[in-house]
Amino acid sequence: MPRAIFLPAFAMVLLTFVVWLRMYIMRIAQMKRERIHPQSVATSAQSAARLTDSRAADNFRNLFELPVLFYLALVIAAISGLASDVTLALAWLFVALRVVHSAIHCTYNKVMHRFKAYFAGGVVLWVLWAWLGYQLFAR
To answer: How far apart are CA 11 and CA 136, in angstroms?
Structure first.
């Protein structure tokens, strides 16, 4: 089980890579299509003004918010010997919900659909932390 706890982390890294790739494909395509010079989008303010489709970039930034706590939870589970079936199931559920969130965010971007996936993933993450806290301190 100790190594298995890192598989969801690798899945999140893969998701982050896919979103990163999509972000650059979309940005380069728009820059070529609209003949935007790279220097004209050198700052975030310039980029926001010129690059109109920020879905993938927004999602990429989002993958460095709650997932930071996810990665830490997996490390704590591994080093404390708490990589149980429950921990692993919660980790995979979080990853699945983040995949759904990213898919919505990077494609049709319906806010309430995206919010539901984000919220559900957040709840799973807090349950994971509660489970780890219980396992660490209440035993």
So the answer is: 26
Query: What's the one-letter identity of residue 59?
Result: N
Q: What is the pLDDT of residues 90-102, one digit of tens each?
A: 999 999 999 999 9
- pLDDT tens for 112-130 read 999 999 999 999 999 999 9
User: What are the helix and strand counts (H, E) for the chain?
Assistant: 6, 0
| Helix or strand (DSSP H, E) at 84 | none
SS (H, E, C) 41-80: HCCHHHHHHHCCCCHHHHHHHHCCCHHHHHHHHHHHHHHC
**Angle at which helices 66-79 and 85-106 pack, to 10 degrees?**
160
